[in-house]
Write a structure and sequence with these properties.
It contains nine helices and 15 strands. It is of the alpha/beta class.
Length: about 290
């Protein structure tokens, strides 16, 4: 899957491309599934070029799972035939090169595995950066998506109480992940106040609630956004630069193996349906993850 100009989902094209090969410190996989992330369509639209500089035409996708079929120079601990998940480039494809990876935990499907890399790295990073500690309460706005699903479970595993906001249809889902759930919309700030003190807050959806999150925490330094580019205007940190993906993948594999982390796949798409996957991702209201199956 490729695009030759920036624009809407209609610029995506299914093309025959040269097979990529693993360079030093890399592996190549036969892709079985690729995660669909907001950064995919933001890059396609030309929104985030500073963080993800590209040359056109360009491939699509960062996250993937599959079977190793080529190992680059200097790589050890992995062999052809191993089942892995990780991050690379142009992952909406039959073959992709990964720069960070981990073995897939037992019992995980390729579709499930493809949904973890970026969202778990993001979840671990924002929990760390917002500074919330065990015994404190974290408010998560937009909690039912992939990052939110990971944040809720990781925070609960660390002894952090979590209040999550989502639509009416996702209230039981948030509770199943260990969160105290409430709805967004009119009166949501008052509903959160009735649930108790908020020590830190995360804006994961970019729905224009940063000012209210600051009000609830009493301090802009206790709020962090990954979705509202205007957050710094209110003194709130915007986190958009990834940390260590190998460390995040190792922690994800450990959490999954211990039964402490499970992110459901809401919908799978064929490679030819990548444009529809982007449209659905951009519309939001996701419960868990969306993936492209190769």
């Amino acid at each position: 899957m490729s695009f030759a100009e920036f624009g809407g989902p209609d610029v995506l094209r299914l093309v025959d491309a040269e097979e990529p090969h693993a360079g030093p410190g890399q592996i190549r996989i036969a892709v079985r599934a690729a995660g669909v992330n907001p950064v995919d369509w933001r890059v396609r639209e030309g929104q985030v070029l500073k963080a993800h500089p590209i040359e056109l035409p360009a491939g699509v996708g960062l996250d993937a799972s599959g079977v190793v079929d080529e190992v680059g120079e200097g790589v050890d601990g992995v062999s052809a035939g191993d089942r892995v998940f990780g991050e690379g480039s142009s992952t909406y494809a039959e073959h992709a090169v990964l720069s960070a990876w981990a073995r897939m935990p037992e019992g995980l499907t390729f579709e499930e595995a493809a949904g973890y890399p970026s969202v778990v790295e993001t979840a671990l990073r924002v929990i760390r950066e917002v500074g919330v500690q065990p015994g404190q309460t974290l408010l998560v706005s937009g909690a039912s998506g992939g990052v939110g699903s990971a944040v809720l479970q990781i925070a609960r595993d660390r002894g952090i109480t979590v209040i999550g906001t989502a639509g009416v249809a996702n209230q039981d889902y948030l509770r199943s992940l260990g969160a105290v759930a409430t709805t967004y919309g009119e009166g949501w700030v008052a509903r959160v106040r009735r649930l108790g003190q908020v020590d830190a807050a995360l804006d994961l959806a970019g729905s224009g609630v940063v000012r209210e999150l600051v009000e609830l925490t009493g301090n802009p330094h206790k709020v962090l956004s990954i979705a509202d580019l205007g957050a710094p205007d209110l003194g709130v940190r915007f986190s958009g630069v990834a940390g260590s993906m190998p460390d995040a993948l190792a922690e994800a594999a450990d959490l999954i193996s211990r039964g402490k982390l499970h992110i459901p796949v809401e919908k799978s798409y064929s490679l030819g349906e990548a444009a529809a996957a982007h449209i659905d991702s951009q519309a939001g209201h996701t419960r868990g993850r969306r993936v492209v199956v190769i």
